[in-house]
Amino acid sequence: MAKVRMYSTAVCPYCQMAERLLREKGVTEIEKIRVDLDPAQRSEMMEKTGRRTVPQIYIGETHVGGYDDLSALDRAGKLDPLLAA
């Protein structure tokens, strides 16, 4: 299973929904980077992704985007192959 990394905050409902979807897909480990605890991490996230909002999800080296992007990948049948890589 590919490594999953997620920029998130403690109270973000979309972060929680993304984590729930990933867990349903069999992901047991998610590296969470809390941007609310470390402003430097938020700056890094914005620099890498060009986005300000959380979650920002990486599967392996692929930037998936946020929850809506993750959910769209799943509906299109493209999430499982990405996770299996």
Care to give the gist of this entry?
With 85 residues, the protein is an alpha+beta fold. 45% of the residues lie in helices and 21% in strands. It has a single domain (4-84), classed as Glutaredoxin, CATH 3.40.30.10.
Chart the SSEs and their pairings.
Blueprint: E1 4-8, H1 13-24, E2 30-34, H2 39-49, E3 56-59, E4 62-65, H3 67-75, H4 79-84
Parallel strand pairs: 1-2
Antiparallel strand pairs: 1-3, 3-4
Description:
The protein has 85 residues and is an alpha+beta fold. It has one domain: Glutaredoxin, CATH 3.40.30.10. It is built from 4 helices and 4 strands. The protein has a 4-stranded mixed beta sheet with strand order 2-1-3-4, with helices on both faces. A hairpin with a 2-residue loop joins strand 3 and strand 4 (62-65). The longest helix is centred in the N-terminal third of the chain and has 12 residues, at 13-24.
